[in-house]
Design goal:
Length: 301
């Protein structure tokens, strides 16, 4: 194992905050990872990492050394790529995670086009609606919809999802068509509960630049977009949802739009990546391919 290999191991341990996760991602025995860090610390004459029972963190010297390692690794990889004849053809495995409905409806059907262009790249595609720890899970990129908390990750906003209010024709025939938020007191909603927090989202609308909210009664609450659409089509209540999610139902007449002037505020769509100066070519070409696919498929504003 040469010095650059040890640098790579060290940076992965820092990103994962764990010897075990770093070893898993690198495909190395944990003992090899531990030995590499010990050799680095001995060579440098300083402690780089603080170990605890729950996680690994950098010391002050470790922070300084980590920044230098990232630059050195990037320079070495750039130098090596100068003379690679196969550099125009990216290879290897990349790991991404997207919301389940976006993955099924937009990304998966488009993937054959990507593989036709880059046949030597493999994609580990996760489709979840929960919060993913990008670093601990070893993801190269994660797509998320909604407001983000503070993060050290690189965030690239792709656009916003417009909302629509919808209901089934049968529901409206029985309960009437709401024209104004004041009418909502006589209606029920298909309530959505966040799979992460279990919090039921209130009905919301924009009124003269102000955001208004109203908790809605309902017969059913769900924790996925597909379940909420199915319940709405079945006539179980009004639904607020991104327009792209119900475009087919609106076109077929299974759902109709109501109160178009009182809609929820748009949701940002963001692509998150680790804060690395150098990214593998397979990741770069995938992101370049992915952005127009998402913008077109999601009808982003």
């Amino acid at each position: 194992m040469d010095r650059i290999d040890r640098f790579r191991i060290f940076t992965r341990v820092v990103e994962c905050a764990s010897f075990t996760r770093a070893a898993d991602q690198l495909g190395l025995p944990r003992s090899t990872v531990s030995a590499a860090i010990a050799e680095l610390e001995q060579r440098l004459g300083t402690r780089l990492l603080q170990r605890s029972t729950r996680r690994v963190s950098t010391t002050h010297d470790g922070d300084v050394f980590h920044a230098r390692c990232l630059r050195l690794i990037a320079e070495v990889e750039d130098a090596e790529s100068l003379f690679r004849q196969d550099d125009a053809q990216p290879v290897g495995l990349l790991k991404i995670d997207v919301p389940s409905r976006i993955g099924r409806r937009i990304l998966a059907p488009a993937l054959p086009d990507f593989f036709a262009r880059h046949p030597q790249v493999e994609v580990d595609l996760g489709m979840t609606d929960r919060a993913v720890n990008l670093i601990e899970d070893g993801c190269d990129a994660v797509l998320r919809v909604g407001q983000l908390g503070d993060s050290s990750l690189v965030a690239r906003m792709l656009g916003q999802l417009d909302f629509v209010n919808v209901a089934a024709p049968a529901y409206l025939r029985e309960h009437g068509v709401p024209q104004h938020p004041a009418d909502l007191q006589q209606h029920r909603a298909v309530n959505y509960a966040s799979p992460t927090t279990a919090r039921v989202e209130p009905w919301e609308w924009q009124d003269g630049g102000q955001l208004r909210t109203l908790p809605m009664p309902g017969w059913v609450r769900v924790n996925s977009a597909e379940a909420s659409i199915a319940c709405c089509v079945a006539g179980l209540g009004l639904l607020q949802i991104p327009r792209y999610d119900v475009q087919a139902e609106l076109q077929s007449g299974a759902l109709v739009e109501v109160m178009p002037q009182y809609v929820a505020q748009p949701l940002p769509v963001t692509l998150l990546q680790p804060h690395r100066q150098h990214r593998a070519q397979r990741v770069q070409v995938f992101i370049e391919w992915l952005l127009p696919v998402l913008r077109n498929g999601l009808q982003l504003q």
